[in-house]
Input
Amino acid sequence: MPTQRTLCIIKPDAVEKKVQGSIIQRVLEEGFRIVAMQQVQLSRAQAEGFYAVHRDRPFFDELCTFMTRGPVVIAALERDDAVAHWRKVIGATDPAKADEGTIRKLYGANVGENATHGSDSPENGLIETAYFFPGHELL
Ligand code: GDP
Output
């Protein structure tokens, strides 16, 4: 399996619930190396840029409002098969449809407020980690 990077975002709902520590612990237990990590409150422009692919979707405004309402923890993760593995650990977009034990099942509230982000392809893993960590921060 190739070593890949994926972007993890612990979303505002999970930070509000104070479960960011549990999620980071899970990241480590799943064998990821944390290449970079920061807590920030996203600007509207950062959120809109990050989710630009969804700009024509009906939930775009709601999504950007949610993602900017409080701090997020953003981490660049690395391991073998990182993208698929992290997607499996976080579970389906809608927490109600996510498998037992997944992060979204454990901590998500609904299809919008679903606790965590994970990149959806190896290419996007690189693009998204570079979006928030343009270079020198990566270990
Ligand atoms: P993901 O790859 O599983 O995160 O799902 P998507 O790429 O389809 O959507 C990106 C993010 O947009 C999701 O994680 C949700 O936070 C949000 N989202 C997706 N669908 C909906 C929706 O129907 N309503 C709202 N409010 N947010 C949504």
